[in-house]
Design brief:
By secondary structure, this protein is an all-alpha fold. It contains 4 helices and no strands. It is 53% helix and 0% strand. The radius of gyration is 11 Å and the shape is globular.
Length: 78
Amino acid sequence: MSKFKEILARVLQVDEAKITDETTQDSIENWDSFNILLLASELEKAFLIKLTMEQTAMLTSVKAVKDTLAKCGVDLNA
């Protein structure tokens, strides 16, 4: 889980403590369309996955990101 939070914090330029399952695009100013693309790229590199454009467009909350990663076979608890 720490790699996941570290990526979100770095891309969105926020403290890891601000990242919870309730965190959404509306609650973090830097969570814009550009940073969604950057987030997708960083997640792909870190977890060796490939996201579709539809999956990338859904990266608008921490819960949605976790759900998308799970669908790609990423176990954040490992």
